Amino acid sequence: MASVCRSVTELSASPEPGCNEGVKSHTPCRGWNARWQWLQLNLPAWAISLWASSGQRRAPSGGCNANIMDCPVRRPCVSAYTSVVRLSPRSRRLKSRRPAAKPHVLYVSYNSAFDPLVESQVVSYLHGLHQQHGLEFRLITFEPTETLARVGRAGTEAMRVRLRTVGITWSWLPYHKRPSLPATLWDIVAGTLKLVREIRRRLPLFIHARSHVPAAMAMLAGRLTGVPFLFDFRGTFADAYVDFGHWSPLSIKYRVTKLVEPVLLQAAHQIVVLTERFRGMLASGDGMRPMDVGRVTVIPCCVAIQEYPAETAPEPAFIFCFAGSLGNYYLLNEMLDFVAAARCLDSGVRLLVLNRNEHELIRLEADKRGLLEICEIKAVEHHAIPAELARASAGLAFLRPTFSMQAASPVSYTHLRAHETGRNL
Fold first, then answer.
1. What is the pLDDT at residue 137?
2. Which of 311, 400, 423, 412 is nearest to 352 (CA)?
3. Is 280 exposed, middle or buried (0-12, 13-18, 19+ CB in 10 A)?
4. pLDDT for position 51
5. In DSSP terms, which residues pair with 173 in a beta bridge?
6. Which of the residue ranges 184-198, 297-311, 374-388, 408-422 would you say has the lowest mean pLDDT?
7. Burial (CB count within 10 angstroms: exposed 0-12, middle 13-18, buried 19+), residue 212
8. Which of 98, 126, 141, 416 is the most exposed place for a label (fewest CB within 10 A)?
9. Which among 256, 254, 259 has a CA at the least distance from the CA of 239?
């Protein structure tokens, strides 16, 4: 992830060969004719960026002598794009009110900051980047009303203070759930306006958008301000919704998502995916539009290995462990059937489940198989997971064999591999 941060930072800081030297110069690329100069000085920023991004026109011969879409990122070079935006009267209103004291990144997630996934897959990453590279982060999340009611004002303030100690300034927007499509569109508009306001306050290096909805916000905000964005592609969630029966492949939501997805991929200046297999799928066009993967970096789900104990006293019983949320990805019934079969061979087998919100479902299915008495179900905080995993003899993670899973990196598998029990996974 650090390499991606560096590459996007360098991309936003250095001009492409043959282009003007960044935002300080008001002189267009050498060789551009007087008509282009007139367009730069008289058209609004959105018209210039739309003209440049269409890819239908070519720059006049000279410094930028190729199709404007032939830059390495398949977009106008970031320095020239930013120069055009800042030259227009509209962009002067969007200019940062004060420069950042330290380099910082705007990070947008459509999850709640109180979600365990955000703790392990967002906060841990940003904390590590802050420690190693001195980057500051402004984190924007979307909080459901019930979550805010559960934690209260004191919990919200405690989260804000805790994140500030690890280099993260946190703000949030309300999450809207129903009706599904209009609510999501409303959140995209609200998130875009929030990003533009944050950019006006302090100009970031770039926007890090985690998944599709934040990527749509980042793309729109980038069109208005010229700030590049990194698309943290967490999987083909539209295909996952179809695989798990939530959406129909003929539904409007699925079609809209699949139409917007390639637009986001082409608009992003850098892309992060979770698996090498999915990177190959992007290159070959397997199930989607093929694209150049030179901007794509593979970063699977990670954990902080130093938090896991090196040596632990073994438990007398053989304990299988599952850690994480079941959702639609994991095969609960098959995992319980496996434990039941193992118990037929060894009556001392036990099952440890580390899960927060699905206890009733797990108890119900375990009781059907006569496993309730050997099943221990616990809700633990993120920092307590390593100590609990240390009790296990082997880990369980049965995943659904679907198309969308080729782009997924299961968090529970990562936790298990971080501990030596991963050898028995």
1. 94
2. 412
3. middle
4. 41
5. 142
6. 408-422
7. buried
8. 98
9. 254
